[in-house]
């Protein structure tokens, strides 16, 4: 028995399984939030930059996070420290139509809200009231899509085609790749992404922060996988995602005491706290609000589209676009492709054609503009 397992058993004996999961989620979330705040990691910014014909700092930062997550996850699999087939995205049937439609809706909403779900959470902790309100709308719509009045629509859209038609959701098995091969390719891609970021004049601290953000995905996989082996109650092996956890965290505050405490519920407050502390230490806390009614409508519409789209797709820009992709779930890669596609199209239709160049895209080191 290794030291990590012994330590987790000791914590479980002291506080119980659920609180151990929540504390682990909070710690991993805090590290994610702090370094995401410092690196300005944002799929929306990367997709917009790429759609405008440039591979610069924002794309490079996203690629560092993505490749670090894939490399770390596949290295864990190659060394036998986790079994990717036990991941929720692989072990249970997933919707192919939901992945595509949800990704398209999420990408559009992401551009309208000027940030994905994780980015809104990180920004809200720094005093961005636009992100805070948008994040609340995102969580409410996600909950309505999961268990509320929007759930019949979500189920109807997800029903037509599932991974049972493709023989499963394991993309690596379909193309006959093993974890050693994918880990090696991901490490090479990570080095190339870091070189691109350096050529784009990204500061070393920004590159390092992005790398740590990416490593939080395999860290969460390893933690939940280890907890599965020592817990008496069934535990789903999962990693970072923000659609379901945002909905669950919202309901935790709206339901009587005694609601279920788990990894997901600890994750969201952890990200918020980590981002707040990072912004506080670096003196980046700043209250920001909406400029006018039109911008407010845009943000809230985008947040609603992300809430429904993320739940339909089975994951957000991080949950599907990084976490699901790191275990090579077919639906996650479909969602990721559709997010990038719809984000580029929406940016062209809404921003590039109608906004002044000076207002179209904020610098990486600034907060998103209205």
Brief summary:
The chain has helices spanning about 5-15, 15-40, 45-50, 55-80, 90, 95-110, 115-125, 130-145, 150-160, 170-175, 180-200, 205-230, 245-255, 265-280, 295-315, 320-325, 330-350, 355-360. The chain has about 375 residues and is mostly helical.
Description:
By secondary structure, the protein is mainly α. It has 18 helices and no strands. It has helices spanning about 5-15, 15-40, 45-50, 55-80, 90, 95-110, 115-125, 130-145, 150-160, 170-175, 180-200, 205-230, 245-255, 265-280, 295-315, 320-325, 330-350, 355-360. The chain is globular and about 55 Å long. The N and C termini lie far apart (about 55 Å). Mean pLDDT is about 90; it is low at about 355-370.
Please state the average pLDDT score.
Answer: 91
Work out the helix count.
18
Low-confidence stretches: 357-370
The SSE order reads HHHHHHHHHHHHHHHHHH
The biggest sheet, with number of strands, parallel, antiparallel or mixed sense and barrel status, is:
none
| Gross morphology | globular
What is the rounded Rg?
19 Å
Portion of residues in beta strands equals under 5%
Q: Measure the end-to-end span.
A: 53 Å
The helix/strand class is mainly alpha
State the main characteristics.
370 residues, 71% helix, mainly alpha
Summarize the topology:
Layout: H1 3-15, H2 17-39, H3 43-51, H4 57-78, H5 88-91, H6 96-112, H7 117-124, H8 129-146, H9 151-158, H10 171-175, H11 179-199, H12 204-230, H13 243-254, H14 263-281, H15 293-313, H16 319-326, H17 330-352, H18 357-360
């Amino acid at each position: 028995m290794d030291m990590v397992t012994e330590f987790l058993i000791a914590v479980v004996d002291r506080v119980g399984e659920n609180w151990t999961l929540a504390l682990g989620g909070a710690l991993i979330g805090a590290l994610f939030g702090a370094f995401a705040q410092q690196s300005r990691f944002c799929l929306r910014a990367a997709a917009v930059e790429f759609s405008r014909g440039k591979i610069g700092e924002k794309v490079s930062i996203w690629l560092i996070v993505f490749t670090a997550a894939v490399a770390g996850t596949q290295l864990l699999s190659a060394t036998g420290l986790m079994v990717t087939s036990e991941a929720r995205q692989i072990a249970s049937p997933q919707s192919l139509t939901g992945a595509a439609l949800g990704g398209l809706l999420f990408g559009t909403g992401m551009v309208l809200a000027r940030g994905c779900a994780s980015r809104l959470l990180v920004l809200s902790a720094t005093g961005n009231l636009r992100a805070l309100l948008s994040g609340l709308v995102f969580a409410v719509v996600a909950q309505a899509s999961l268990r509320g009045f929007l759930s019949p629509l979500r189920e109807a859209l997800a029903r037509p085609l599932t991974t049972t038609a493709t023989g499963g959701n394991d993309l690596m098995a379909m193309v006959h790749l093993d974890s050693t091969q994918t880990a090696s390719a991901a490490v090479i891609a990570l080095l190339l992404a870091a070189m691109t970021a350096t050529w784009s004049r990204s500061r070393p601290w920004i590159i390092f922060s992005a790398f740590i953000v990416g490593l939080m995905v395999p860290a969460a996989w390893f933690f939940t996988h280890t907890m599965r082996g020592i817990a008496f109650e069934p535990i789903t092996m999962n990693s970072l995602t923000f659609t379901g956890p945002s909905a669950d965290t919202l309901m935790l505050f709206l339901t009587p005491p005694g609601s279920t405490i788990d990894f997901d519920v600890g994750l969201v407050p952890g990200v918020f706290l980590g981002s707040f502390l990072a912004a506080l230490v670096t003196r980046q806390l700043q209250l920001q609000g909406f400029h006018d009614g039109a911008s407010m409508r845009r943000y809230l519409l985008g947040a609603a589209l992300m809430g429904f789209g993320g739940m339909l797709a089975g994951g957000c820009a991080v949950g599907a676009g990084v976490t699901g992709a790191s275990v090579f779930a077919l639906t996650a890669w479909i969602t990721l492709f559709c997010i990038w596609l719809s984000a580029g199209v929406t940016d062209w239709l809404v921003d590039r054609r109608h906004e002044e160049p000076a207002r179209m895209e904020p610098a990486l080191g600034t907060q998103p503009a209205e």
